[in-house]
Specification:
With about 270 residues, the protein is an alpha/beta fold. Helix content is about 40%, strand content about 30%. It contains ten helices and eight strands. The radius of gyration is 18 Å and the shape is globular.
Length: about 270
């Protein structure tokens, strides 16, 4: 199976990713929450880490009133699509930058704000990356992480289900894939030297045919199918905490919840 990393470096698939992102109701719901969490004050410099095709950079840039959004991504195909969209409908003050997440091509203390949206679960070295974010932020600068999260583990069965989910996702998304809980993300922030400020949840309840609009939806179906082959108690816990599905011919009906967290920290 082709990994996400390879797909993100393919121009045609980057364009398809952007097409789906443009029609995502989930992203529309997340945008005002992201803007509120960033607490932008005037013409600031904002780092969009793993910016992709710039779908979150656009509303942030529109909110800056003269500032700049620097979109950093190591996938040139994604940045190319962002530039194509920028040519059609300019993103005010948007500056794309190619570079690895572990070593930013910026000097220390240049950004007022930073955020990463729907990317943390792909990072291979999150602690190192968060320290880099802190390095390039000004004193008292803020950093917001937006990412799908798993429910907090209340027992060993929850932990086993969580571990199996990540194991299955890694087959299609690469060896570093990992979904965190909100508490895990807060721990990453504080471990990198940030002061945890706030956490908000955005719950997407679905009762629909197919996985359209659900982040990594088709891979969640793969998870559900493999969970069905696991022990009965794991299947029951998965359906209780995540979702259940029914398949009739080629139609898959899904009912359950998918949760994203917005977790912010402040540079100390």
């Amino acid at each position: 199976m082709e990994s996400d990393k390879k797909r993100f470096h393919d121009h045609s698939q980057a364009r398809e990713y952007d097409r789906k992102a443009a029609g995502s109701d989930f992203r529309v719901r997340l945008t005002p929450m992201l803007l509120e969490a960033l607490e932008i004050r005037g013409p600031e410099w904002v780092l969009d880490l793993a910016a992709g095709t710039g779908r979150f950079a656009r509303p942030v840039a529109n909110h800056l009133e003269g500032g700049r959004v620097v979109g950093l991504d190591e996938a040139l195909a994604m940045l190319r699509v962002a530039l194509e969209q920028n040519e059609k409908e300019p993103i005010p003050g948007f500056l794309p930058a190619a570079g690895a997440a572990e070593t930013f091509p910026f000097r220390a203390g240049v950004f007022d704000r930073a955020f990463t949206a729907l990317a943390l679960h792909h990072f291979g070295h999150p602690s190192l990356i968060l320290r880099e974010v802190r390095r390039v932020l000004k004193p008292d600068g803020s950093f917001v992480i937006v990412d799908p999260v798993v429910p907090p583990a209340r027992d060993s069965l929850d932990k086993a289900v969580h571990e199996l989910i990540n194991e299955i996702f890694r087959h299609g998304h690469g060896e570093h894939f990992h979904y965190y809980s909100t508490a895990d993300i807060e721990e990453l922030l504080t471990g990198a030297g940030f002061r945890a400020v706030r956490s908000n949840l955005c719950v997407m309840s679905v009762d629909q045919d197919g996985m359209e609009g659900v982040p990594t939806g088709r891979h969640w179906l793969e998870v559900a199918e493999q969970i069905r082959q696991a022990a009965p108690e794991m299947r029951r816990r998965f359906e209780e905490k995540y979702f259940r599905y029914e398949k009739k011919d080629d139609i898959v009906h899904v009912r359950g919840n998918f949760t994203l967290a917005l977790v912010s920290g402040r540079n100390q």
